[in-house]
Design brief:
InterPro entries: ATPase_NBD, ROK. This protein has 418 residues and is α/β, with parallel strands linked by helices. The chain has two domains: 194 residues, no CATH class; 184 residues, Nucleotidyltransferase, domain 5 (2-Layer Sandwich), CATH 3.30.420.40. Helices cover 40% and strands 18% of the residues. It contains 14 helices and twelve strands. The strands form three sheets. It has a five-stranded mixed sheet with strand order 3-2-1-4-7. A hairpin with a 6-residue loop joins β2 and β3. α2 runs antiparallel to α3 and α9 packs parallel to α11. The longest helix has 32 residues. 40% of the residues are buried.
């Protein structure tokens, strides 16, 4: 009997815009986590986003629906294999396939991993202080509601693990390295922010309150000690909600000069006054300066991490247009990675190492991002189960969450059906 046969893990990516969820993507994988067995997405409407409890219900509906589709497809494939077997030509094969069809049972859901664009600590989404202009986010009740939805009437729990997006990519990276590289740092450059995940001695490190590797909030523009470096904008000069943000506009946290204000695709586009897709085709002096400045900002953040923890490997996930600019036609986007690499390789922690030995840029298209992050979340579930079984996660798991969350679940149902 093959290990894990008939068992699947669900991984879910929550797409966010301005810290508000806009869509979810779920994948089902086997326990080897290498192949997507089913994948699906759905948009989140404004009512779902309120308080995130609706997002929990959307996740359950999508995961349950995907598993039902996988069950039906697998049964149909078994039936097709029976029909294709010629009883006269090979009766033994026909009989074996009929036995496989008769023995088929629906897949068992091993657990659900969910990744979000926020710090996570002790299994909960950590609150972050935000100042003027930043979108207010209320995660309250999301974790409890989600676990309640995956706890049945017999109080049997399907485990749920929630993880930060780039931390999830870091867990996926060490998993794909077969845990042979004990120390690595992973960085993700997304549309609105930059994050990092750190693995030391083969385990993810999240810091004292879950905000380790929040490299997007490193100060890389202003001279230390100046008002721009130590002050907060307090909401001044904040652009209108939904309008483009330039290098001069403050970070989501309200401060100036952070990596997030330079290195992301949305800031590059805002600075150049065009869409990011159009920015990738430019080759003007202003565009070259813009892409170079954005790359330097990212590289400076990675250099800081290199000096502090000296990771064996550094993996950087970038929009495909930045990681692999076209070679047949020169564009300003080609300035981004060399600028970042120059900063990284100049770090004391990387002295004497060739770039190819430790630094890798991995391109991500928009179509690839959500399924990859969802698969990373599934791997986090598997990793969390292993660490919990080994009792190295410091967790005291409660088996009575159903009763604790029943009231909240009923309140949600009433609010949706007044």
């Amino acid at each position: 009997m093959r290990f894990g046969r008939g068992v699947v893990i669900a991984g879910v990516h929550v797409e966010q815009r301005g810290n508000i969820p806009t869509s979810i993507t779920a994948v089902l994988v086997g326990l080897d986590s290498t192949r997507e067995l089913a994948v699906g997405s759905r948009d989140i409407n404004a009512d779902d986003a309120h308080g995130w409890q609706g997002v929990a219900h959307a996740i359950r509906e999508l995961v349950v629906g995907l598993k039902a589709q996988l069950d039906a497809r697998t049964r149909d494939e078994l039936q097709a294999s029976v029909d294709a077997a010629d009883a006269d030509f090979d009766p033994v094969l026909r009989e074996r396939r009929e036995q496989e069809l008769a023995a088929f049972t629906p897949f068992e859901l091993f657990g659900v991993g969910v990744e979000v664009g926020a710090p996570v600590f002790d299994g909960r989404i950590a609150s972050i202080a935000r100042t003027g202009g930043a979108t207010r986010v209320d995660f309250h009740g999301f974790e409890e509601e989600l676990q309640a939805l995956f706890t049945d009437e017999r109080n049997a729990i399907t485990p749920v693990v929630i993880e930060n997006d780039v931390n999830a990519l870091a867990v996926l990276a060490i998993h794909e390295e077969h845990y042979a590289v004990p120390d690595l740092a992973v960085f993700g450059v997304f549309d609105e922010g930059v994050g990092g995940g750190l693995v030391l001695d083969g385990r993810l490190r999240r810091g004292g309150s879950g905000t380790a590797m929040e490299v997007g909030h490193l100060q890389v523009v202003h001279i230390p000690g100046t008002s721009g470096a130590i002050g907060s904008n307090g909401g001044a000069h904040q652009p209108a909600q939904g309008s483009p943000r330039t290098f001069s506009d403050p970070c989501e946290c309200g401060r100036d000069g952070h990596v997030d204000t330079r290195a992301t695709s949305s800031r590059i586009a805002g600075e150049l006054g065009v869409s990011f897709e159009d920015a990738l085709t430019l080759n003007t002096e202003k565009a070259r300066v813009t892409f170079r400045s954005a790359g330097f900002a990212l590289g400076r953040a990675i250099a800081h991490v290199s000096n502090i923890v000296n990771p064996t490997r550094i993996i950087v996930y970038l929009p495909a247009g930045l990681a692999r600019p076209p070679k047949d036609e020169p564009t300003a986007a080609a300035e981004y990675c060399p600028a970042a690499s120059a900063e990284v390789c100049a770090a004391f922690g990387n002295a004497g190492r060739e770039r190819a030995q430790f630094l890798t840029y991995r391109p991500l298209t928009k179509e690839q991002t959500a399924p990859l992050c969802a698969r990373a979340a599934a791997v986090c579930l598997l990793q969390g189960f292993i660490e919990h079984a080994l009792r190295v996660d410091g967790c005291s798991f409660s088996t009575n969450r159903k009763a604790d969350t029943a009231v909240r679940h009923d309140q949600y149902a009433v609010s949706k059906n007044p």
